[in-house]
Every structure is written in structure tokens, then in C-alpha cells.
């Protein structure tokens, strides 16, 4: 029975990669006109966004350890 709340929260994170891809492509599309440049910039922007989110999550986890 304790597994049901965990499964209910999974749906929220299913959309995260698609949202990240859409935001990255739109942001890159406003900066470039060539498709190759858009895809390179979107990949770079997506990687930086994921790295930033992982860093913030790591800081929060470290702060939780010292609580």
C-alpha cells in the first residue's frame, strides 16, 4: 500500500525530459536560423540545464544531511 503514493508522483517527472527538450529548442531557435546550429545550441543548453538541476539537488541533499 505504501507504493501507491510513490507511483502517483512518477507521472509528474515523465514530462520533464519533453519540457526540457521543448524549452531548449525554442530558446536555441530564437538565437539561430540554421537547423544544425539550433540543435547544437539546444543540446548544449539542455546539458547545462540538467547539470544545474543536479548541482542544486546535490546542495539540497548535503544540506539535508547536516540538518
Keyphrases for this structure?
67 residues; mainly alpha; 3 helices; flat
Q: How would a crystallographer describe the biggest sheet?
A: none
Q: Helix count?
A: 3
* Whole-number count of domains: 1
Q: Residue ranges: pLDDT <50 for 5 or more in a row?
A: none
End-to-end separation in angstroms reads: 29 Å
Overall number of strands: 0
Order of helical and strand elements:
HHH
How much strand? under 5%
Any idea what the radius of gyration is?
Answer: 17 Å
Oligomerization state:
single chain
Averaged pLDDT: 89
Range of helix content: over 70%
Transmembrane segments: 12-30, 42-66
Keywords: Membrane, Transmembrane, Transmembrane helix
What does this structure look like?
- The chain is mostly helical and 67 residues long.
- The protein has one domain (3-65).
- It contains three helices and no strands.
- Helix 2 (16-29) crosses helix 3 (35-65).
- The longest helix is centred in the last third of the chain and has 31 residues, at 35-65.
- The protein is flat and about 50 Å long.
- The model has no long low-confidence stretch (mean pLDDT 89).
Please give the structural blueprint.
Blueprint: H1 3-14, H2 16-29, H3 35-65
Helix pairs in contact: 2-3
Summarize the structure.
With 67 residues, the chain is mostly helical. The protein contains three helices and no strands.
Amino acid at each position: 500500500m505504501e507504493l501507491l503514493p510513490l507511483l502517483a508522483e512518477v507521472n509528474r517527472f515523465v514530462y520533464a525530459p519533453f519540457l526540457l527538450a521543448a524549452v531548449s529548442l525554442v530558446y536555441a531557435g530564437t538565437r539561430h536560423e540554421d537547423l544544425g546550429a539550433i540543435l547544437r545550441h539546444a543540446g548544449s543548453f539542455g546539458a547545462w540545464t540538467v547539470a544545474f538541476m543536479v548541482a542544486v539537488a546535490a546542495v539540497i541533499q548535503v544540506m539535508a544531511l547536516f540538518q
